[in-house]
Amino acid sequence: MHDEIAEQVWDAVGRWVEGRREESVQILVTLADTQTPPMMYGVACGIATVAKAALTKMHGAHAHPCFWGIRTIGGVRPEDIVPPHHLFAARFIAAYLNNDTDTALALYQAAYTSTDPDLWPACMRTLLAATGEAVIAATPEADQ
Hints:
Oligomer: single chain
Distance between the termini: 32 Å
Shape: globular
């Protein structure tokens, strides 16, 4: 079962990279409709694994400890200017890159249990989109 889900995650990211955005999102929607919340956390981590590979390709592997974070222009707090679902995707990927599983899980749980029923699906779609775009940026020939 986990192998099938991993394959679907790869397929969703691959379709995003190929420009087949609606099909990509539909794979994610199908997963959300058929999997439990803990399995969907695994899906989020699987998507972040692909983002990590793309970002490592772009920025190189670091032999020393480093910290991934979110920075805004002018010192403005990200919460004040970045839509919540975009902030979720950026923070989730950063937490994953930093091996901060506590923060990644807390972000996921906050989105999933939000009183806004549209937040969690938007967060997951944005995580998928950000990862697909990272793959495109890391592999210029990927979207051709």
